[in-house]
UniProtKB/TrEMBL annotation, chain B:
InterPro entries: Cyt-d_oxidase_su2. This is Cytochrome d ubiquinol oxidase subunit II. Belongs to the cytochrome ubiquinol oxidase subunit 2 family. It is a multi-pass membrane protein. The chain crosses the membrane at residues 6-32, 84-103, 115-139, 159-179, 200-220, 232-255, 262-281, 301-325. Pfam families: Cyt_bd_oxida_II (PF02322). Keywords: Cell membrane, Membrane, Transmembrane, Transmembrane helix.
Length: 483, 340
């Protein structure tokens, strides 16, 4: 296949050999997963922040912390609702879009989801109990009912990561005649890529949730509401994100070297390196054009240095693998750019965290009065989401053209039936509605919290408004909060 | 081990029918509750009964999917490549229903509530119909082992139409029975109690009629299923009929004692009857459970997961239902009085 053809085969059209469903199916999967992944950090980390605030509120009699906990729980419930339905769509898509994957590898790829289902079940039950338990359960019992939510969301995420990382480094199976004849569950779940990928996602969850929460209160502070409530909300979120950030950089660096060792083609795509060599420069930006890395900023020897601590480290180019199982030029460019965006945004967030630490250490100035800091904090959430998405693109596009590395090509896993462009169009429309609806609901809740106080707001999973005409059962309304 | 997994899978199917099904049925009653003013009382009760538990109920669907694709991956791929249209419609219904229900609770203007409410209610009918049609396609052998069966006739056929229609009315019946009991517990014998009692009764009679009509449909369209339903599964069918009749009599006489349990039993036995009749085949009469099964170690994991679920999930669900039921969490009892 010539390069020009490859280029055309990239973003906008499918290669002639591919089923017509391949491109829309990949786009749809990317879109729906990319949508769903934004909700994951809130399930994992916002629920934990909520418990931290709840604990502080109960332990120290901190009324503001309790209000934060109560509101975050309601936000978490809305996002959980959206996450539950978009997650359900994903499980349908696994079968409808990728029947080849499920048919041939479901025995291995599928069961981590069974474990995930277990965790999801627990999460759904205890989310309900916690949300409905405000003012209706004894405060500490209520606090403890939130712990399973947080734990189960971590277990659920680990299970999904197990399935995903298995696609990158499939192990624990015996294949005979194109069929999985033996499965070693432990090796499938704890495959070579599992621990680092899980840790990376786990920390990312705290970074995204932390900075998004901080951003919300930074906006409030910028608008002149510099009160204790906003500062506390900002601090809990920002400190969480800022503390986790350096660890994430370390883990990311470790993963890059693990990818160099275990997934050389993905590493070559990240480095935009067609041909094997040593003294490989690190190219920032740029693009692969006609099979050569062009433009961009080149730092001599850096890629080799980062991969093996020595400029003479050899890095394998992706042209080492046969053309049929090589990533296309467009895919390489996407992976390379996604990697650069991920590292770039992560560096920005790290600098922001360090600046905050510096300000905090010097104690010269009230942090909330530093408008530059507040402005940057206000957009840090969006930057963190961008970072998360680009990291995920590196993992997923970097695996192409394989759906299960070395075992099954994406084009062989896709369905060969139906007009998937039409399905994709409907999905886009529906998700736009659901996403817009969720944002609108959160805005309505925020406005009413501002104007009518805390308990007046009904939420999707919450009980009927307590105050006003619908009375909360007598004697309970004053427990556990200012409500 | 294959049979054990199949039993666990079917337990999930039955649970989803009884719990998720009731939620869909509640959506059906929401749909036909009339204008904003007239439907306020019933809709408030539906909201209150559903909100604390429906996410947990929905999870049974996920459970069924993951067990199916882990334990019987070939069958799963065959089903999704053949019945992708009703499955996509069901997924659409699930998304719209979840979003519609969630957003309705958060919106305050009547116009908004009406739009979200309509979305919630319409998709509550669409989804069970599609799942029923899917079951009909599988049961009548229209899903080939290699998948990619006929994309239209696999779900537009007599057995599928029967499955879909039965799913909708059975959901309505179950929800009617549950809501009758809920109304009784909250507001005594007047008002909403009578409202839902009459509707549950009507749904029960329609469900019975559809079931009887269904016998002839199956006899013509899915002969093996019919033979076994009138053969080895006959005791189940008879008990289901008796329970259904008992539920109708209870509703008629205005009793609520064990009403939910009896109605659920009737529905569960019909579903179990289907399973028993189809055994040992997973797809029609051509792909057996054993042929479709994953390697033993995967089945072991699935069984282990199911056992852990029994240990962890069941007490949690009982706790949730108990808390929701006695008012520790969930709806205010004070509210039911004004829900008229």
């Amino acid at each position: 296949m010539t390069t020009a053809k490859e280029l055309a085969a990239g973003l906008l059209s499918a290669a002639p050999a591919d089923p017509a469903q391949l491109l829309p199916a990949r786009q749809q999967m990317a879109f729906t997963l990319g949508f769903h992944i934004i909700l994951v950090p809130f399930g994992i980390a916002l629920t934990t922040l909520m418990l931290v605030a709840n604990w502080r509120g109960l332990r120290k009699g901190d009324a503001e912390a309790l209000v934060l906990a109560r509101r975050w729980s309601k936000v978490a419930a809305v996002l959980f609702a959206v996450g539950a339905i978009t997650g359900t769509v994903l499980s349908f898509e696994l079968g409808i879009l990728w029947p080849g994957l499920m048919r041939d590898y479901g025995a291995a790829f599928g069961f981590p989801f069974a474990i995930e289902g277990l965790f999801f079940f627990l999460e759904a039950i205890f989310v309900s109990i916690y949300i409905y338990g405000w003012d209706r359960m004894r405060p500490w019992a209520h606090f403890w009912s939130g712990i399973p939510v947080s734990l189960a969301s971590v277990g659920g995420a680990a299970s999904v990561i197990a399935a995903n990382s298995w696609m990158n480094q499939p192990g624990g199976i015996t294949v005979r005649g194109g069929r999985v004849v033996d499965v070693r569950p432990g090796e499938v779940f704890f495959n070579g890529a599992f621990w680092l990928e899980f840790l990376h996602m786990f920390l990312a969850a705290y970074i995204v949730a932390g900075f998004v929460v901080a951003g919300v209160y930074a906006v409030g502070i910028l608008r002149g509401r510099n009160d204790r409530y906003h500062r506390l909300g900002f601090l809990i979120g920002f400190v969480t994100g800022a503390v986790v950030m350096p660890f994430q950089i370390l883990v990311g660096d470790t993963i890059a070297r693990a990818v160099y060792d275990d997934e050389p083609v993905k590493f070559a795509a990240i480095e935009m390196l067609p041909r094997t060599g040593s003294h490989v420069p690190e190219t920032l930006g740029g693009a692969l054009v006609d099979g050569r890395a062009q433009y961009g900023l080149r730092v001599p020897d850096l890629a080799s240095l980062l991969a093996g601590f020595s400029p003479s480290t050899t890095i394998h180019g992706f042209e080492e693998v046969p053309a049929a199982v090589r990533p296309t030029q467009a895919q390489v460019n996407i992976v390379h750019w996604a990697f650069d965006v991920m590292v770039g945004t992560a560096t920005l967030l790290l600098l922001l965290a360090l600046w905050f630490a510096w300000l905090y250490w010097r104690r010269r100035q009230d942090f909330a009065r530093n408008r530059w800091l507040m402005w940057l904090a206000a957009v840090a959430g969006a930057i963190a989401v961008l970072c998360l998405e680009s990291g995920w693109v590196v993992t997923e596009v970097g695996r192409q053209p394989w759906i299960v590395v070395g075992q099954l090509l994406t084009r062989d896993a896709v369905t060969t039936r139906g007009n998937m462009w039409a399905v994709y169009a409907v999905v886009l429309g529906v998700y736009a509605g659901v996403g817009g609806g969720a944002l609108w609901v959160l805005r309505v809740m925020k406005r009413r919290w501002g104007s009518e106080g805390d308990t007046a707001v009904a939420v999707p999973y919450g009980p009927a408004p307590g105050g006003g005409r619908q009375a909360v059962p007598a004697g309970r309304s004053d427990e556990g909060g200012r409500g | 081990m294959t049979d054990t997994v199949a039993v666990f899978l079917f337990v999930g199917v039955v649970a989803y029918c009884l719990l998720g099904g009731a939620d869909f049925g509640a959506g059906f009653w929401d749909l036909v509750a009339g204008g904003a003013e007239r439907g306020r009382g019933p809709r408030a009760l539906i909201d209150d009964s559903l909100a604390p538990v429906w996410e947990a109920n929905h999870t049974w669907l996920i459970y069924c999917l993951v067990v199916l694709w882990s334990a019987f991956p070939r069958a799963f791929a065959a089903i999704t490549t053949t019945l992708y249209v009703p499955l996509l419609l069901a997924a659409l219904g699930i998304v719209l229903r979840g979003a519609g229900f969630a957003f309705r609770k958060a919106s305050f203007t009547t116009a908004h509530r009406r739009v979200y409410g309509a979305v919630f209610a319409l998709s509550s009918v669409l989804t069970p119909y599609c799942f029923g049609a899917v079951a009909g396609g599988i049961a009548s052998g229209r899903v080939p082992t290699r998948g990619y069966g006929d994309a239209v006739t696999s779900w537009c056929n007599p057995t599928s139409v029967l499955g879909g229609a039965l799913a909708v009315v059975v959901c309505a019946f179950l929800a009617g029975a549950y809501l009758t009991v809920a109304a009784r517990q909250r507001s005594g014998r007047s008002g909403l109690f009578g409202y839902f009692r009459r509707r549950a009764l009507a749904a029960g009679l329609v469900a019975g009629a559809v079931s009887i009509g269904g016998i002839f449909v199956l006899r013509a369209d899915a002969r093996r299923l019919f033979d076994h339903l009138s053969g080895r599964a006959l005791p189940l069918v008879v008990v289901a009929a008796v329970a259904g009749a008992a539920a109708v009599v209870l509703l008629w006489s205005g009793g609520t004692r064990l009403l939910r349990e009896i109605a659920a039993l009737a529905v569960a036995l019909v579903v179990v009857g289907w399973g028993v009749s189809q055994y040992p085949f997973l797809l029609g009469t051509h792909l057996s459970l054993t042929e479709a099964a994953s390697p033993g170690s995967t089945l072991n994991v699935v069984v282990a997961v199911a056992c852990v679920a029994v240990v962890l999930i069941v007490p949690s669900i009982v706790l949730l239902f108990a808390l929701a039921g006695r008012g520790s969490i969930g709806a205010d009892h004070a509210r039911a009085g004004e829900a008229r």
